[in-house]
Amino acid sequence: MGDVAMMIPSIRCLIKKYPETKITVVSKPAFRPFFKEFKNLNFFEVNFKTKHKGLNGLFKLFKELSELNPTHIADLHSVLRTHILFLLFKLKFYKIKRINKSRDERKKLFSKNNKIFKPLTPAQYRYSEVFNRLGFDIDLSSHEFSDPFQINSQDQITLVDKSKKWIGIAPFASFTGKIYPLDLMQNVVSFLQRDHQVFLFGNGEYETKKLEIWEKAFQNVFGCYKLNSLEKEIEIISNLDLMISMDSANGHIAANYNVPVITLWGLTHPFAGFAPFLSLSENMLVSDREKYPLLPTSAYGKKIPKGYESVMRTIEYKEVIVRALKVLELPKYHQSR
Question: Cα dist. 175→110, 236, 270 in Å?
Fold first, then answer.
């Protein structure tokens, strides 16, 4: 999900400079809400569990996409499925370019031995490079943020205090190696909700049960899982004054709407290139590399070396709170809600 969210700045720049270009985004139907702001963008749904499953499904997808008569194709994912599609389009002489993920450089960053600890190119800029290699001259330095969305779930958030500053907190991630200890995050929620309105983000039975406890325990807390809609969650996120998230999709979504993001990093690290768009370095709180020199261990937090189970406890919850309060002192970004 985060990879898809990170496409948005490049798509904005592409449409701004080439407004007559017809764009089709090929992705899972769940991700359609990310592209709501683009009125003339076509969204092509894929389903790798049914219609486009397996090699036969990929041939079917290739045929369906070919019928759209594309002039330029950008592979922004670079995985096995898209590699097969890439080859098929190449054989038919389509103009197609693929994202360079610099996998060799990543391996050196994550290596246990002879680690080369230096920042890699942010993913958002890798996306724009693909469009540039296709012949579209876009530059993320000219990016313009979209306005926050109108909130269409007012009836569901009637008890939310609109006079307070709004803070989003997304305490979960795909892998445990990226999740801040929940007892520490509870301290963050408990403190910030005293004077601010907190929105909690998470999905699935395990996550929602945890969030339900906090929502019941604290007065100024709203669980966005009750909205049952990614689109409605994005509307809320676009109107936040601050987002606190793991190295996860929610941080990228918030950054797309000029919401300042505080990210907490465990077994991963901003140097891998997955920091939220234009995020400030002081808002990226990383685990202690002096105590845990193998950090980062992977791009997704899958690999947990022995003794590295508690790396995120080196990020003091008071540090998170202090950073949040400093961000909230800044001029308000949004006024639409």
Answer: 16, 25, 16
> Per residue in 78-127, pLDDT tens?
999 999 999 999 999 999 999 999 999 999 999 999 999 999 999 999 99
Distance CA(187)–CA(155), nearest Å, equals 29
| Closest residue by Cα to residue 222 from 172, 321, 153, 176 | 153
DSSP-derived 3-state class of residue 183? helix
Residue 235, both tokens: 């509307």
Q: Give the H/E segment covering residue 5.
A: helix 2-5
Instruction: Please state, in angstroms and rounded to a whole number, the distance separating the CA atoms of residues 267 and 176.
Output: 9
The closest of 288, 279, 277 to 314, measured between CA atoms, is 288
In this structure, what DSSP letter does residue 169 have? E
**Contact (Cβ atoms closer than 8 angstroms) between residue 333 and residue 259:** yes
Cα–Cα distances in Å, from 27 out to 42, 45, 77, 144?
11, 6, 10, 24
Residue with tokens 């389903």: 47
Tokens of 35: 């592209």
- For 311-332, write each residue's pLDDT tens digit: 999 999 999 999 999 999 977 6
pTM for this entry:
0.93
Number of Cβ within 10 Å of residue 230's Cβ equals 20
CB-neighbour burial class of residue 72 (10 A; exposed 0-12, middle 13-18, buried 19+): middle
Each as own residue / partner, the long-range contacts of residues 185-189 (CB below 8 Å, 24 or more positions apart, any chain) are 185/317, 186/214, 187/317, 187/321, 188/244, 188/317, 188/320, 188/321, 188/324, 189/214, 189/218, 189/221
CA distances from 94 to 73, 77, 97, 162 (A): 8, 18, 10, 51
Rounded Cα–Cα distance for residues 204 and 147 (Å): 29
Closest CA to 237 of 254, 220, 260: 254
How far is the first Cα of the chain from the last one, in angstroms, to the nearest whole number?
Answer: 26
Task: Give CA–CA dist 216/198, Å, rounded.
Answer: 13
Q: How much is the CA Rg of the chain, to the nearest whole Å? A: 21
Domains and CATH numbers, the chain: 2-142 (3.40.50), 154-328 (3.40.50.2000)
